[in-house]
Amino acid sequence: MELESTRDVATRLGETGYLCDESLATVTFLALRMQRPLLLEGEPGTGKTALAEALAESLDLPLVRLQCYEGIDASQALYDWDFPRQILHLRALEATAAAKEHPSVEEAEKSLYDARFLLARPVLAALQQSPAVLLVDEVDRADDEFEAFLLEVLSTYQVTIPELGTVKAATPPIVILTSNRTRELHDALKRRCLYHWIEHPGLEREVEIVRSRAPEVSQALGRQVVTLVQQLRDRDDLQKPPGVAETLDWARALHHLGTTELDLATAAATLGALVKYREDADRVRQALDRMLRA
Amino acid sequence: MSSTTVVPPGEVPTRHGADEVLLAFTRALRAAGVPVTQDRTHGFLAAVSVLGLGDQRATYLAGRATLCAGPDDLERYDQVFEAWFNARDGLPRTRPAQPAAPTFSELPAADTDGGAGEADEEVVRAMASDTEVLRHRDVASMSPAERARLAGMFATIRLRPPLRRTARHQAWHRGDIDASRTLRASLRRLGEPAEIAWRRRGVRPRRVVLLVDVSGSMSGYADPLLRLAHRFTQVARERGGVVETFTVGTRLTHLTRALRLRDPERALVAAGETVPDWSGGTRLGETLRFFLDRWGQRGMARGAVVVVVSDGWERGDPSLLAEQMRRLHRIAHRVIWVNPHRGKEGYEPVQQGVLAALPHCDDFIAGHSLATYAELAEVVSRA
Predict the structure, then answer these.
(1) Is the pLDDT of residue B98 over 60?
(2) Residue of B nearest to A33 (CA)
(3) What pTM did the predictor assign?
(4) Quick check: is B79 in a domain?
(5) Which domain CATH number covers B221?
């Protein structure tokens, strides 16, 4: 359970099929040891979200995911009261009141704000279940007001519910934030976190990733696919260079077509798994012949 | 945390304590332009003490995680780290400890309270018309004194941040029926029918992105354009809007942070230190592509009002510029091209860059004088 060193982190993550390099392992180790949130940025498809999943799996902790979107607010991230059930409860009290002696008004009111009528949204759920891994995904999509609110939770790891009291995590959850940099996050939030920029993996590592994530794909095909993808990433004229997720998609797509060795026709036919813009597809198709021959 | 650090022999220069060396490193980093704050420094020392001092690579990674805030910082961090721990010289550059003291620009003379005398009135009127002339003069041809007076006049530019409708609804006293709010209100009254709640689509300020060309051919306009960007940034901020500014030239520089400083002179000094390629060449197509790859396509330019300020003297391949402008036009709400030469007599848009870009612009306006900048503010506000 307890991870002792950077290498330990890399090994444990590796066992779940998540292969990370030394710098990411170090930052993760620091985040665990210093109990600080970890802010991950990088190109889409480099495994930011996957790290949280792998971490939860390797530490055998529940993963609580908070997907951010524009307009998300505290009642969707923290907690909410279950109104219909509270009403039902009141009606039930009314119905039984005739039979039993009257409960006082205060008691009835008090029974309304009971923990069982509380809907725990992700952040509260993570605090209650902690130790847990809390993934705050694509935090840049949320409004900036939401950041201020996150800041409060991430610095104290507690939530105050006026009617009920304060919920504090016994052990702080492991918090991973991801951002696609659609906007710059506020400095105050960034300061609270450890920062890491995830790069695309190198050739050998990506081959390993394909091998562990898509073991059904033949080794020769896996290597061919990765080599090609790496060449595509080196080109600077693509609007959206393929990420690791696309590599895996493509390798699997080729596998489903029964391909064991990449050829021009199937590569061109399955290109939709790899590049997602028409202009990119045209460019890749033109270069494919040359790249395959090389 | 620092009290636990022990100097292992041979790892760090032994004349100083380890924490001293690390602290001094954060200072050097700040001098090189990475915004290192006190709590970041604390985090750094704590991280190093977790990983142990013996390993330089671990120290490097600890600093990367705790002292940097974005990909722009990483490059500088690498340089400073290399210089500090391995070579001890060749620091990228140093920044003066204090930005130059703010110079207070005088109010336009027209605003001074003239005496009662007739002669004074005459002077005031002359000054007033002088101010008006200054508003329409080409800023590149001004003397330093005139520029200083003009600087104060930027405060007259008004900008209403453009608005967009959001997916979120907000409570309103008429509009569509807000079913969930109505229902909730009635549930609170134990299911008794309550008042009907209404809602409408909310509005939010639209993001404005300024891409300012600071290449050699635009050098006369760089200062007023940055003042304009600063003014936009500040005005929009008061109203909850966001203006992001980048300079383009041979490379792309994110200037927003510098321009958020409230005082214009300080902001300009900070901006001047951030931009590495003043008066260089123009590779508009390439920098635009970098902007779209790194920022624009992910969301910065999506649905935004994008203002490109450039004279269109493109050194690179015009077809690349055309393609990137097409890309930009597809994701932005409105693309406005501002050309300082447009307002001059006999101007024809013949430069290759302008020709390539024009089909992908919604507006093409002049940008050589204060009056045209006010017009730009108007166009942006209405976008």
Answers:
(1) no
(2) B50
(3) 0.69
(4) yes
(5) 3.40.50.410
pLDDT (tens digit, 9 = 90+) per residue, B5-40? 444 444 444 457 888 888 999 998 888 878 888 889
Helices B370-382 and B219-238 cross at an angle (nearest 10°) of 40
Tell me the helix, strand and coil percentages in chain A, rounded to 5: 55, 15, 30
Q: How many Å lie between the alpha carbon of A115 and the closest alpha carbon of chain B?
A: 19
Quick one: which of B320, B216, B330, B229 has its CA closest to B270?
B229
Q: Which domain holds residue B178?
A: 165-204
Closest to B242 in 3D by CA, of B308, B179, B323, B299 = B299
Locate the chain A residue with the closest alpha carbon to B185.
A83
How far is the C-alpha of A272 from the C-alpha of A263, rounded, in Å? 16
Contact A30 B70 (CB under 8 A): no
Residue B299 and residue B335 in one domain: yes
Same domain, B184 and B124: no
- B269 and B318 together in one domain: yes
* Lateral strand order in the sheet of A174-179: A63-67, A133-137, A174-179, A38-42, A194-198
Residue B153 in domain: no
Question: Which H or E element spans position B300?
Answer: none
Number of separate domains in chain B: 3
Instruction: Band the pLDDT of B180: cuts 50, 70, 90.
Output: confident
Which tens digits make up the pLDDT trace of A151-199? 888 888 888 888 888 888 888 999 999 998 877 788 888 888 999 999 8
Average pLDDT over all residues of chain B: 80
Residues B199 and B234 reside in one and the same domain: no
Partners of B190 on chain A (C-beta within 8 Å) are 87, 90-91
Reduce the secondary structure of B247-265 to three states and give it as a string: EECCCCEECHHHHCCCCHH
Q: Are residues B351 and B285 in the same domain?
A: yes
